[in-house]
TrEMBL record:
Keywords: Cell membrane, Ion transport, Membrane, Signal, Sodium, Sodium transport, Transmembrane, Transmembrane helix, Transport. The chain crosses the membrane at residues 84-109, 148-180, 201-221, 233-251. Its main location: membrane. It holds the Pfam family SSF. This is Sodium-dependent multivitamin transporter. Belongs to the sodium:solute symporter (SSF) (TC 2.A.21) family. GO terms for biological process: sodium ion transport. It comes from Holothuria leucospilota (Black long sea cucumber). It comes from the Eukaryota. GO terms for molecular function: symporter activity. It is a multi-pass membrane protein.
Length: 257
């Protein structure tokens, strides 16, 4: 967060302040937020972001494997509820800073009579790497800063990746391997489990899913933006997942064996 704020302050100071950056983006039509077109083929509208974004994020923060795993790791239900409520202002702050960075990046390169897509054609990368390009251009003379910035990005991503890998390993161990064991041994669930063996198997699943994730990273480079793919996957899988939980909440018979 500190590095992002530093980038925001540096970029805004060079374009004449946040007010000037806001004015440039407004004149370019990038702040037409409260528009309500009913064209379903248009991806970024007010309704799609507010309604679709809320529905799309609900599975991730409420009923996904990673979310439930974090809730169960809390000491009590009260602690889990507090963690969710604390996440709201913190996440709002992070997203707000990222949005302001995007506005400042556009205003910065707009002031140079250079569209961001032109910068993307440089050897440094594409449009998705515009922030890294800015850091390399503006802070490259500071020893170690570029490495510090990239390490912060990697650390932030690893916190999410680690929880996802652990969640997938838990699902594979309990729901897949555990079901197979129960089919072979009817007394498996009643018998004492070998925690040491299961821990080793879980680590193996984590390594396997990690290797698969690295391989998929090379494939996603050819499929478009990460955000659009993320929304597509969660939009397809998140709806049925939320529906399953809602069924169990509002219909008592669904919880009966």
């Amino acid at each position: 967060m500190a590095t992002c704020i530093l980038v925001l302050v540096t970029g805004s100071s060079q374009v004449g302040g946040v007010d000037e950056a806001w004015k440039i983006n407004k004149n370019a039509g990038r702040l037409d937020i409260f528009t309500f077109p009913f064209d379903v083929t248009e991806r970024m509208t007010f309704l799609s972001i507010v309604i679709g974004g809320a529905v799309n994020r609900l599975p991730m923060w409420a009923v996904s494997q990673t979310a439930v795993q974090r809730f169960l790791a809390a000491k009590s239900l009260r602690d889990a509820e507090i963690s969710v409520w604390l996440n709201v202002p913190m996440l709002t702050l992070v997203i707000g800073v990222c949005c302001l960075e995007g506005l400042v990046m556009y205003a910065f390169y707009y002031g140079r009579s250079c569209h961001m897509s032109v910068v993307a054609d440089t050897p440094h990368g594409n449009i998705l790497q515009i922030l890294i390009y800015f850091v390399n251009e503006q802070f490259g003379h500071i020893p170690g800063y570029r490495g510090l910035f990239l390490s912060c990005l990697v650390a932030a991503s690893l916190s999410t990746i680690s929880s996802g890998l652990n969640a997938m390993a838990s699902v594979a161990l309990v729901d897949i391997l555990g079901t197979y064991r129960a089919m072979r041994d009817k007394d498996y669930l009643k018998s004492r489990k070998n925690d040491k063996r299961d821990t080793t198997i879980s680590r193996g699943f984590t390594i396997l899913f990690g290797a698969i994730s690295v391989g998929l990273a090379f494939i996603t480079m050819k499929l478009g933006t990460i955000v659009s793919m993320f929304n597509s996957v969660f939009g397809a899988a998140g709806g049925p997942l939320v529906a399953t939980f809602l069924l169990g909440i509002f219909w008592r018979r669904a919880n009966e064996p």
